[in-house]
């Protein structure tokens, strides 16, 4: 990433003038390979996705996912960013007729997550997910966090106790809930619920954590808390986050991918994408011309 | 920091946990499928049992004599198996029931779907459900011991056992069902259609009769047909109050056994397994099943149509 | 200019006729609404009167002796002990069979079955079974259970028959409950790596519990009043004994001998007494009717209350 400035004034992102470069709309520039110094956690290669009605939502996407970094996927609504994210833990397998093409290679084993022999349940054991709307289970806070452990057949009380506390601490919500662990998760505020859901996702130690617009249903204060949390987490876990909020991507992510109409138009260092986009579409999106 | 006592997916595979879970999931899926398939088995078993025992019956009684014979005397020395008396009584009581349930059901459904305030509707619907919950033998009691003595004061020539009163009671019995199915259909008519009517200056009753009823027509028809099917298959009211004497009559003031009442009567007596009298209850049962099946299938498709239409 | 005057004139007359029409329509509206209310009130009053009559005739007959006596040839000594014990035991069998099978079928149809001819076929089947007259189930049981499997005219057979009878009701109610569970809860569970059965067992079934409960209660309330199929399988109307107790003093303390015993149930006892000529038996019938109605109404009341609570819950 030699061509990126080291720091940028984030407030300037919005007002970045649209440089009217000569457009080359049909041939996006080749997506940059991941920087050599960052180890890979997963590679999305020539990946396409078709919904059961035949609609191709993802078109031959290539994208590296860096280990213990935050990768943000941005783009206008309907561009396929959530669809791509949900492909990474085989959510689409829950509904019949959906079809994947290409590869999602999990490193370092080199296993293809969407290959015919890959079991969707096993994939989800490795790749956790946090959803758009906070979706705690109608159970106690404790049982919500323990859910992923129970799925893995863990029954020892001491192990679960410890894992629940660890996960709640990592999700920065321990202090708020430690006195009411056995109260209903529905008594928490929306922001707390979402952090609880992140704790739930973290508890079983996933290899990758997917966040699907995790703050879209939250107020600004709760959003800030979740953002701080995500940034801290990236020291220990690989995160892929979809967001419709460009500032959010700029604030928290290390790498950003811009998607448009099912294609990955541009991928690169977040600073570079927001300060010096290579593709005119990326540029018009981040400068607010559509989206 | 990540907790090391939590197994990774590789460890889960190695310990056999994943394989075990897979077998459990597969086994449960099979079990659940068998539960669902039981319904198919039940239908098949019904058809099988009815046809098997009717088969022997129709070996002895020609189908033509069965369908068009006017004498039903199964336990006489020279038994006759003409089903018309039973069928006539069945259709008369069901017809009487429809004569009550159709107009009243329609008015009540329109009232509930178009006029009643939500609070009123929320009170009346559970009350209607309660009516549906009254055991049929209790309705039989009402028909025989309450309504008949009462109506004998108004209807000259009304016998103690008759078709009229069970018919009326049957109508009240199926009313809640007819109301709830047709109200569902009316409420499924989109509000945009109603608003179109109001936009033309129609009054409520005009919207109800010119827009809602035509719009919900297939659903309302389904309600009537399914109600009819219930009336035809209802047993206890008729066994108690319509009598058990096969009697080809078109006078509802007289008593006559219906198909269902005949089955009850034969079951109460000691009918030798395998005798022609035993087989005869399966033959009339088959007839009853075919009639109700026909109604149910028509009703099912009409109902599905209004669900798809909006 | 003349066209405008004409327009204004005709507009005025139209206004007049329109005004009349509106007034007429309003009158008809009131007529319609009153008609609806009157019909409703009529039906309700008639039924309340009938039930009131039943209670007045029967309630005084209900006492300790009535509940603890066997049926008798003497109307004043007749009781419903064997009938309510029989009903209870038959319901036990019915609930034990219909609830798990209903849950299984409901889950399969709602969560497992792919849309196709098979699931469509099963669906039509279930809805058709809901409309099959109850007496046909009686014939099925007579031909298949009593004579086909040689199970005899027992509590087990009655329970099985009623279980088949209420299965469609239970299935429909469970499917509705399962359908109402938000998709994001399900996806959340799958997202943790749960397999399909884990999701069913740990999330879907617990979340659908109120719906399962209402379905079971409504189904059982239907079964408890069902008479025709039980008559068809040949339940006896005069039973002056109780089936062997399910709990015994010796090891293994639980006995299933009662399953193979003869029995009678409340609605059959009532039918039997209604059909007798003596008025004293009619009073006993009315008393049994009061017990039956009290049972079914309270069961349905509980179901309606659960559903009401449930709806409040979703609103939050």
Automatic annotation (TrEMBL), chain A:
InterPro entries given in the database record: AAA+_ATPase (IPR003593), ABC_transporter-like_ATP-bd (IPR003439), ABC_transporter-like_CS (IPR017871), P-loop_NTPase (IPR027417), PstB-like (IPR005670)
MF annotations from Gene Ontology: ATP binding
Coiled-coil segments on the chain, per record: none
Disordered, as annotated region: 1-31
Residue ranges annotated for the ABC transporter domain, each copy included: 42-286
CDD domains: ABC_PstB_phosphate_transporter
Pfam families registered for this protein in UniProt: ABC_tran
Gene3D superfamilies, A to Z: P-loop containing nucleotide triphosphate hydrolases
Entry keywords, A to Z: ATP-binding, Nucleotide-binding, Phosphate transport, Transport
Name assigned to this protein: Phosphate import ATP-binding protein PstB
Origin species: Sulfitobacter dubius
Gene field: pstB_1
């Amino acid at each position: 990433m030699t061509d990126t400035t080291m720091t940028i004034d984030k407030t300037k992102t919005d007002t970045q003038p649209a440089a009217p470069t000569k457009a080359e709309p049909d041939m996006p520039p080749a997506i940059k390979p991941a920087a050599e110094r960052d180890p890979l956690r997963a590679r999305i290669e020539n990946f396409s996705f078709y919904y059961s009605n035949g609609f191709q939502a993802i078109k031959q996407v290539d994208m590296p996912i860096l280990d213990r970094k935050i990768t943000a996927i941005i783009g206008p609504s309907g561009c396929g960013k959530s669809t791509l994210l949900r492909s990474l833990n085989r959510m689409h397998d829950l509904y019949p007729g959906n079809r994947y093409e290409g590869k999602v290679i999990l490193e370092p084993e080199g296993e293809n997550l969407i290959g015919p022999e890959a079991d969707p349940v096993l994939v989800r054991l490795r790749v956790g997910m946090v959803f758009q709307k906070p979706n705690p289970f109608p159970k106690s806070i404790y049982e919500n966090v323990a859910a992923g452990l129970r799925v893995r057949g863990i029954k020892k009380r001491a192990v679960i106790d410890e894992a629940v506390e660890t996960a709640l601490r990592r999700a920065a919500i321990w202090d708020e809930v430690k006195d009411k662990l056995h109260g209903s998760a529905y008594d928490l505020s929306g922001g707390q619920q979402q952090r609880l859901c992140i704790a739930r996702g973290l508890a079983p130690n996933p290899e990758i954590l997917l966040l699907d617009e995790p703050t879209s249903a939250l107020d600004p204060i709760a959003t800030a808390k979740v953002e701080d949390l995500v940034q801290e987490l990236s020291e220990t876990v690989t995160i892929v986050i979809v967001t419709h909020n460009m500032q959010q991507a700029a604030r928290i992510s290390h790498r950003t991918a811009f998607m448009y109409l099912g294609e990955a138009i541009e991928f690169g260092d977040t600073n570079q994408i927001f300060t010096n986009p290579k593709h005119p579409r990326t540029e018009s999106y981040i400068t607010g011309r559509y989206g | 920091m990540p907790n090391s006592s939590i197994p990774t997916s590789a460890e889960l595979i190695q310990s056999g946990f994943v394989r075990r879970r897979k077998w459990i999931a597969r086994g449960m899926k099979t079990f659940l499928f068998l539960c669902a398939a039981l319904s198919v088995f039940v239908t098949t078993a019904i058809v099988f049992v009815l046809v098997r025992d009717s088969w022997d019956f129709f070996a002895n009684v020609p189908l033509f004599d069965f369908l068009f014979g006017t004498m039903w005397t199964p336990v006489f020395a020279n038994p006759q198996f003409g089903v018309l008396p039973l069928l006539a009584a069945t259709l008369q009581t069901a017809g009487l029931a429809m004569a009550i349930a159709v107009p009243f059901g329609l008015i009540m459904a329109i009232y509930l779907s178009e006029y009643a305030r939500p609070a009123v509707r929320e009170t009346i619907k559970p009350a209607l459900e309660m009516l549906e919950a009254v055991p049929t033998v209790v309705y039989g009691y009402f028909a025989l011991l309450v309504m008949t003595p009462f109506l004998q004061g108004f209807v000259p020539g009304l016998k103690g056992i008759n078709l009229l009163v069970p018919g009326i009671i049957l109508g009240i019995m199926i009313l809640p069902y007819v109301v709830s199915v047709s109200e569902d259909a009316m409420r499924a008519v989109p509000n945009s259609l109603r608003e179109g009517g109001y936009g033309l200056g129609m009054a409520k009753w005009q919207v109800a009769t010119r827009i809602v009823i035509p719009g919900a027509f297939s659903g309302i028809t389904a309600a009537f047909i399914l109600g009819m099917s219930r009336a035809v298959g209802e047993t206890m009211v008729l066994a108690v109050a319509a009598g058990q004497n096969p009697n080809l009559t078109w006078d509802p003031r007289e008593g006559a056994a219906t198909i269902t009442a005949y089955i009850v009567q034969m079951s109460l007596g000691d009918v030798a397994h395998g005798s022609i009298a035993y087989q005869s209850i399966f033959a009339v049962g088959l007839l009853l099943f075919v009639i109700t099946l026909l109604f149910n299938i028509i009703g099912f498709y009409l109902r599905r149509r209004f669900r798809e239409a909006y | 200019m003349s066209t405008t005057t004409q327009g204004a004139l005709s507009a005025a007359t139209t206004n007049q006729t329109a005004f009349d029409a509106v007034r007429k329509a309003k009158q008809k509206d009131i007529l319609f609404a009153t008609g609806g209310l009157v019909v409703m009130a009529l039906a309700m009053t008639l039924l309340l009167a009938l039930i009131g009559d039943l209670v007045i005739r029967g309630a005084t007959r209900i006492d300790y002796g009535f509940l603890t006596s066997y049926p008798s040839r003497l109307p004043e000594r007749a009781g419903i002990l064997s009938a309510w014990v029989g009903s209870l035991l038959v319901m036990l069998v019915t609930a034990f069979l219909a609830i798990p099978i209903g849950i299984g079928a409901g889950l399969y149809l709602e969560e497992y079955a792919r849309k196709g001819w098979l699931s469509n076929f099963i669906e039509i089947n279930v809805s058709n079974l809901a409309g099959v007259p109850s007496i046909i189930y009686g014939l099925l049981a007579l031909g298949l259970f009593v004579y086909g499997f040689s199970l005899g005219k027992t509590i087990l057979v009655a329970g099985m028959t009623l279980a088949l009878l209420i299965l469609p009701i239970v299935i429909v109610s469970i499917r509705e409950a399962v359908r109402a569970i938000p998709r994001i809860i399900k996806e959340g569970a799958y997202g943790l790596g749960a397999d399909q059965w884990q999701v069913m067992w740990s999330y879907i079934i617990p979340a659908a519990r109120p719906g399962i409960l209402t379905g079971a209660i409504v189904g059982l309330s239907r079964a408890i009043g069902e008479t025709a199929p039980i008559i068809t399988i040949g339940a006896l109307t005069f039973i002056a004994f109780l089936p062997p107790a399910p709990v015994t003093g010796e090891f293994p303390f639980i006995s299933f001998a009662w399953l193979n015993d003869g029995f009678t149930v409340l609605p059959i006892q009532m039918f039997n007494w209604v059909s007798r000529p003596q008025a004293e038996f009619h009073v006993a019938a009315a008393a049994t009717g009061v017990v039956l109605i009290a049972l079914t109404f309270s069961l349905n009341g509980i179901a309606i209350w659960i559903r009401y609570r449930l709806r409040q819950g979703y609103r939050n």
